[in-house]
Specification:
It holds the Pfam family Transket_pyr. The chain has 23 helices and 17 strands. The protein is α/β, with parallel strands linked by helices and 633 residues long. The chain is globular.
């Protein structure tokens, strides 16, 4: 641990026994020292992620240090009494898992300074088998309690803990888990950080009338509420929970990031602490070496220059909001209020919906982390012809809404959905947050209600797409990436989707002509494919490029064009098993076309980091060029 600028060897490996619910002065002092040490360490190494541009989350793991320190001491005091795993249903609190892995000797301390970096095996959510010392994969928010119920069933003579949060408790999974835990009297102890903060706001304000405690009492759980920063009370409540059979929720009230000047109680505390605030915090806690290390970090940059696209980049996820605001602005106030309802799932800032919230708050609903229910509410609003719900969340969560999408289709609902963070680009949260299975949204029958999937390639096309489809009936799914994308250029160096360009739903587009075959692509894979095409042409290999912005419709004219060419390569960042490429070859064969065919997509677990995800999957320009050369022989 000598290379880590905070002395983690100072951690005091104490043992605690719940038969004595009162801390001695020595135990209390040791716990407080451990809490401060670990909070300093979490601020420091999560801030290295901020300094390197890969982001992260500081507030959640910082908050829950007291309970984790107590659990660690309990596990050490009676290992055979507990399932000694810090199960956590708020996966973004991964810093807790990495720190405990280090303290337990599984992960060298200096590795913590590679937090969320590409190929560091320290992604933004814990992944079993990927990181030394990590004992479970958390997946997305609110998925662990049902799982821990099963762990408790498998270990009937032991106690299983699950760290929770007021945010994760908003997921419907937890309501189901609560009912099962009570009905089966499972020995599951929930330790919930109730800090009244999620990404986009304060639950007490956007979900007025509900509380975690009252909700769980309604499910039949015993509740032990208190101040999470009062170490004596916290320990006594944990002891009582352990000494009482059955499921119990220990609810800890505290402000987000207690004691961090500039973050305490603020929503931004959910995310990674800024370098500035981290330095101020560390210096105020006599951790100068750690502060100095942060000052010296230089963020790595992708210096690759992509051919065929401009040097102007923008985030399509925000452009979606700008385009929607422009369209709504052409409606009267009465018309907007009557015909449009926008329902957020705590991700308005990430999905561009905040632009609508700011411009037209009267049509906007700030809702919680309840993707299924929020989508259905949007669909219900859009059941009447002429009305439509607008819904947004991350693409990784689309899989959670499949049944609700089916019901919306069966009810002929009008829903415009924006699923941002599609694919893998800039996804340091890694595999569980990849938006890979987006084609699942088109899960109806061939004669079913209108459903279209769109993945615009750049900001110009995103605006044009929204202009065309905004008022269309049916289910419309628009995808965008977390990363910024450049404007696609034509052969004259002008914006391909600029000027008088009009988006036509279902129409594929020739970006570059080619005599030796075609690459078919879309979204953020298009500009990478374009770079590969331009470089191949320089090598004398004349490959064309087709943009397919409407993912689930077949442009017969374009199919004939590319089907008669020598080769076709589909390039996407969706799941190679379930993406467009998995069906595109069959669609060619069904029409009697037999070009040499292959498809590239995401096929292995992620590597963390940002742009590094694309070369890791072999879908960067180098990988695309290699695949083309293999097809042409």
């Amino acid at each position: 641990m000598t290379k880590f600028p905070i002395d983690l060897s100072a951690y005091k490996r104490i043992s605690l026994d719940v038969s004595n619910p009162t801390l001695t002065n020595e135990q209390k002092t040791s716990l407080k020292d451990n809490i401060q040490l670990c909070r300093d360490a979490i601020v420091f190494f999560t801030a290295t992620g901020a300094a390197r541009g890969v982001g992260g989350h500081t507030g959640g793991p910082f908050d829950t240090v007291p309970e984790v320190m107590i659990l660690d001491a309990l596990f050490r005091g009676a290992a055979d009494k507990y399932v000694p795993i810090f199960f956590d249903e708020a996966g973004h609190r991964v810093a807790t898992q990495y720190l405990m892995s280090t303290l337990n000797g599984d992960l060298p301390a200096e590795r913590l300074m590679e937090y969320r970096a590409a190929h560091s095996h320290l992604p933004g959510h814990p992944e079993l088998g990927f990181t030394p010392g990590v004992k479970f994969s958390s997946g997305r928010l609110g998925h662990m309690w049902p799982y821990v119920n099963g762990v408790a069933m498998a270990n009937p003579n032991k106690i299983a803990f699950c760290l929770g949060s007021d945010g994760s408790q908003q997921e419907g999974n937890d309501a189901e888990a609560a009912r099962l835990a009570v009905a089966q009297n499972l020995n599951v102890k929930l330790i919930i950080d109730d800090n009244d903060v999620t990404i986009a706001g304060h639950p007490s304000k956007y979900l007025v009338g509900t509380t975690v405690a009252k909700t769980l009492v309604g499910h039949g759980l015993q509740i032990l509420e208190g101040n999470g920063e009062d170490i004596d009370d916290l320990y006594a409540r944990i002891c009582k929970a352990v000494n009482t059979a059955g499921p119990i929720a220990i609810i800890n009230h505290r402000p987000m990031c207690p004691g961090i000047v500039g973050l305490e109680g603020q929503t931004h505390g959910h995310d990674v602490i800024s370098v500035k605030l981290a330095i101020e915090y560390l210096e105020s806690h006599s951790q100068q070496a750690a502060a100095d290390h942060l000052k010296g970090i230089v963020a790595p940059k992708n210096t690759y220059t992509f051919m065929g696209s401009s040097d102007k980049w923008d985030a399509n996820r925000n452009v979606f909001g700008d385009a929607a605001v422009a369209i709504l602005g052409r409606m009267s106030a009465a018309e907007r209020l009557e015909k449009v309802k926008v329902i957020d799932s705590d991700l308005e800032g990430s999905c561009g919906l905040k632009k609508i919230h700011d411009a037209y708050p009267e049509v906007f609903i700030s809702s919680g982390i309840m993707e299924r229910g929020n989508f259905s509410a949007a669909a219900g609003f859009g059941m009447e012809p002429g009305k439509q719900g607008i819904f947004g969340t991350f693409s990784a969560f689309l899989e959670m809404c499949i049944s609700e999408i089916t019901m919306a289709r069966l009810n002929n609902s009008n829903v415009l959905s924006h699923f941002s963070h599609s694919g893998i680009d800039d996804m340091a949260d890694n595999t569980c947050h990849f938006g890979l299975n987006n084609m699942f949204a088109d899960n109806g029958l061939s004669d079913g209600y209108a459903t279209n999937l769109y993945f615009p390639a750049d900001p110009n096309q995103m605006r044009a797409c929204l202009e065309t489809i905004f008022h269309n009936p049916g289910l419309r799914f628009v995808f965008s990436t977390r990363s910024k994308v450049p404007a696609i250029l034509d052969t004259n160096g002008k914006d391909f989707f600029g000027g008088d360009y009009k988006f036509v739903s279902g129409k594929d587009e020739v970006i570059r002509e080619g005599t030796q075959g075609y690459i078919v692509s879309f979204g953020e894979a298009l500009y990478r494919s374009l770079d590969a095409v331009e470089r191949l042409k320089q090598e004398g290999i004349d490959i064309g490029l087709i943009n397919k912005p409407t993912l689930n419709s077949i442009d017969e004219e374009m199919m004939a064009k590319i089907g008669k060419s020598p080769m076709v390569l589909m390039v996407e960042s969706f799941n190679r098993k379930t993406g467009l490429g998995s069906r595109f070859g069959s669609q060619l064969l069904e029409r009697g076309y037999k070009p040499n065919y292959n498809h590239l997509g995401t096929h292995i677990e992620g590597c963390g980091g940002l742009w590094e995800q694309f070369p890791h999957q072999g879908i960067d320009p180098a990988g695309i060029m290699a695949a083309v050369k293999k097809l042409i022989g």
